[in-house]
Structures are given as C-alpha cells and as structure tokens.
Structures
1.
Amino acid sequence: MKIKKLSVPLSMTAALAGLIACGVSCAKKNESPTKSTLPPPAEPLPTNAPAAPTNSAAAPAPVVVDNTTVTNVPPATEITNPPPAETTLKAPEPVTTPETNVPGHNTVVEMPTNPPAAPTNFYAPSFVSAQGGAKSSGPVLTPIGQTSEGCTNFFFRFRAGYEHVYHGDNNDSYWLSAKFYAFGDGLRQQAPGNAWLIPDADAEVSSGYVAKPDGDRHPGAGQGLQFRAAFTWPWIHWTELMFTRTNSICPFCRPLALGLGPTVNLGFDHLYDETDYRFARYAGVRLTFNRTGYVEYTVGETEGLDSTRQQVVAEIPFYESRDGEVRYYLRGLWNHGLSSKPDILEGGLFVEMPFSTLVQPDKWGDLVPFAQ
C-alpha cells in the first residue's frame, strides 16, 4: 500500500518537469532575430595564405579586432637582380667655383715679372698713320703723303662751325677754315742727338669775325681773314691711363698722350673792308692732348691792339668717330691787354674732317655725333 503512494508523486513530478522543458523550448523559438548571439571569433589566417578574391559576391566578413602579435613572419626576400644600365648620357654637372668675395677672404693677384716698358720713341710714325695697318690708341690721321718709314707726316683738314666774338660788342658768325698739320717724328728719328730742335707744326687760315683796331671809329669786330702758324717742341711727354675706357668715343676716355713744351705763334689779321694786314706774334707754353687738342698760354702783340697782350687759347675735342677722322671741338680764346681797352673773347663749336669726307656719302654718318 505504501508503494502505491510513492509512485504517484514521482510520476507527477516527471510530468511537470517535461511541461517546463517544453515551455522553455517554445520561448527560445519565439525570441527576436536581433537578439541572436555573435558567432565565435574566427581563426587568424596564416601569413602565407592566399589573399581573398576581391570579386567575390559573398557578403564581407565582419571586422574582427585581433591584438595577437605574429612572431613567425619570415623576413622579406632581398632582390639581387641589378637594374638595367641607363642608355642616355647625363649632362655634366656645372663646376661651381668657391666664392671669394666674402669677408675675411683675401684674393692673391700675381703681378707680371717684367712690367711693361714705355716705347723709346714717344711719337712713332705708326701713331698717326692709318695706312700702315698699325693699331694705336692715339688719334688716327690720314697723311697727305708718306714715301718712307722715316719721313715727316703731313695732314690737311677742313674745319667748320659756329663762333661768338666779343670785343666791346657781341657778334655771332660762321667759321670756315683749312688746317695743316706737320709732325716731325721721322726727322727726330733720323737726328736723335738733335731731336729736341725739331718741332711739331700746324697752320690754319680761317674766315670769320676778327677784332678791329682799338683806334677804329667803330670799335668791335668785323668779318675778316685770320692766319696763324704755330711751332711746338714737345720736350716733356707722358701717357695718362686714369680715365681709359674700352671702345669709347670720347677722346679723353682713351689713353692720353700728353706733351708739354714751348710754342711760338705767328700770323696776321685782315678785315675785308680794309686793305692792311696786321701782324701778330706770340710765344709761351703749350700742353697737348693726343696732339690735336691743346691748352696754351702765350704773351705777345697784335698790330692795331694797344699794349702787350696775354692770350689763352684752348681747343678741347669732346667727340671722335671710331676711325678718328671726324672730330668735334670746343674752342675758346681770351686776349687781354694792359690798357683799359676791352678784352677779346671768342668761343665756338667746330667739326674737323678730311676733305675726302665731303665727297664720300658713305662717310657722312660719322658727322652725326654720338650716333655710333
């Protein structure tokens, strides 16, 4: 009887446990898909596994954060095949010189062992001769004739320009003249012991305004003819290179051949409305620039002008063509007497050229100053 009482509760207990298990299983089936658990983490791929194909249509795998350090990765294989040789030539690299113009750096300049010596003959014949083919830094003049290496050179030039004259009145006039040069270089070479006796000479006959006599009823200046001949002995001479410039048209920007010595001027003045000729004589010292330009101071007399006269004359070339044939001058004269009579003042601008330039149209371009 007791056995029957125990079996009933056991069977009831088993039935109740089966109902509970069935209910729990149904509850799990009815849960929402969003609450599903994540799959376990995937195994890390080996380092030598092939890369996954990029064109696969499967959904991308979820990103898994793995902090595991891989220690068995093999080292990268070194490429031992050399690259192919270049077939194109490279341009040479520019050579850079060290900068020497820096503070504390001194550049050493070696001077020549033998310094240049001055020529024994100061005025060589080639200095003024353009026909001999010699190159010189001095003025180049075309001689009238040259029969031998040692002969004296002669030059004939035409001069024209504008002049202003003051002798108690003011007059503006044209200036036309013919000038003759004679340089005694050849004679000085043939007579070395007596070379100091041989001068350089120039003579000029000009038409323009000249001073009237002080006793004239109408004092002043009038149209007339003037002739002057000058003899200069260049006893002292030297070369100045201070203002030298390369290929310059300014005569003072080239090597200057300077000469200093005594000079004597002789000539006459003649007015067109009178018949007499008034003799003039002066002596002094002259400083020459490349022969053609000069500044001189002389003392003397001119007939018709009162007392002894002091005279300063300057002819300064300020432009010269490349071949040296055409030159422009500034000319000035101051003549002062001891009496109270008015001084003579002259100033002008002149161009000088060979007579052959007038008949050669291809040379007319040299007459335009500073156009080269």
2.
Amino acid sequence: MSDKFDLSDAVYSPVEASNIALAAIQKISQQSTRGVKLGIPDIEGYFAPLLPGQLCAVIAQTSNYKSGFLHFWMRQLAMQLMSENRFDEAIIHVSVEEPVEEQMYHHLAAEIGTDAGKLARGDIQDWKSLEGAALRVAQIPIWRIGDSLARAEDLPELYLSNMVRCIRQLTSGEVTGKPVKPAALFFDYLQAFPYDPEHRTQGEDKRRLQVREDIYRLRQAANYFDCPVIVAVQAKQKLDGARGEIKLPGMYDGEESSSIAQRADRIITLWMPARTHRVGEWISEGGTTFTVAENMLFVKVAKQRGGLPAGQTFECRIDFARNNISTLTKKA
C-alpha cells in the first residue's frame, strides 16, 4: 500500500461533517446570484438554476436538437446576464460539431426571423437588416472556441486539454488583456471530442474510456473555472431507457459510458417525435396521446442532485426561425 496519501483525510468526525455542510450551504447561498436559469419559464420552476461547480448533460439522439437546444440556452442566459447587470460575466461555447460560421448563422437568423439555411446559402434579401443583426449579435456576451473557415490553416486540434488551455487563456486575460469571468461553459458535443494525446487511454475499448475520462475532466473544469458546465451528449441508437413509443433517452442512454449519468449533477434529455415518427401520426402511450408535429420537442428533467425533483417531462414547441423553445403542456 502506498504511503503517498494519508487515508485519514477520507475520515470525517460528526463535528467536521457538520461544519463542512454548513460551509457548503453558505457557499451555495452566496453563489445563488450566479445561478444559470434554463430560460423556459414553465420549466424553470422545476429545474433549479445551475450553480458554479455543477455539470449538466443534455442527452439526445442524432438530429434531435442538441445543438439547437444549447444555442437557445446560451441566448437565454445572455439575456439573463444583461437583465441581472452581470456585465462582468460572459458565456464560453466550445464546439467541435459546427464551425463558428454555422453557429453564427443560427444566431443571425434568429435575430431577423429567417431560416439559418438561407443564410448558409447566401440567400439574403435585405443586407441592411442582416448587418444590423450582426451589430446586435456582436453585443451578446458569448465567446466561441472552435473551428473556422477563416482560420483554416492555423487551427489547433481541439481535444479536451487544448480546449481547457483556450478557456484558461481567455479567463486569465491572456487573449484580450482583460480577464473574462465565465458565467457558464457549453461544450458541443462529448462523443465528438478528438482523442486527447495528453490523456491517452489504454486498453481495447479506448473510445469508451476516453469518454469516461472526458466527462470526469469536465466536472473538474466546473470546479476549476467556478461556473456551471453544460455538455451535449450523443444518445445510443438503441435506447434502453425509452418507454414504448416515447423515445426519450434515459439517464444511462449516453453513448459510450455510464459515467455520464454517474458524474453529471443534472441531466436533461430531448426527443423530437418527428425524427422517429411521421408528422401527423397519433401516438398513444401510458395515458399520453398526441399528434406528431414537425416542431414538437419533449424535454425531460431526468436527474437533479441535492434533493431536487426529477422525472418530469415537458411538451414544447420550437420556433425554428427564432430558435425559441416554449412549453405547451406538462406530461407526467
């Protein structure tokens, strides 16, 4: 047995445990003003604001609005920061899924109420409106780390160690000369992270071990940068936690590793019925009956630590032009 660690450090007396709990509660009460709301009013009463140090996973299958959900959440958080006069804070978004240009198409399209696909095709009817939208979007406090066609020759490989270096340089002031205080870190998405040569995993199932290592390090990042971390997670193709015709992923349906469910403080799962059923089709399951619509989205709060409720599912609608999500009804 190694004598490197004093195992007594893992033992707490009743007095020590009580004092540590009081200190933790005091810290939480002081950080409550830095909480990150979800931005959907009817769900906010159920989904408590994320606090610094917490990790939230957003799990969905391919094409079930993971990236769109993160873009929506970031814009809502940006409005929250401005309304709460938290002008010293900013959002940091890391993506290996979409180039910066494609991310901005979504934000610009939402600003002028058009389809992002039109901007991607260069289909512009009113350049003045678009330029005005670009000026407004430039005031939204979201810093982006990712690939760009504009810097194609100078791009570093964005594995997790380099992501953390970028964030550290930004938050320390090395990039701009002024430190950036993160309100939240968003990552899109976990299974798309490249292999990290600085934390190369060993063994046969390297991909699964890499995902397990990355989710653990994201939790560490939430503590190190003293802010919530939200990460999009790819769900399995065959869901274990889905119920009948309701294809919502379960907590353990994150692809590659069960550590996703174990390490995350909060889990939100998403399902767009139009991706698994025909539009207009009737679905009836467990007392729930609805007609599939193209813009229908089910949002489930699958996990909340700290004695908070979990398991509630909300039926929502997506305004694709504005990238806005609103609740329709609440489902058990």
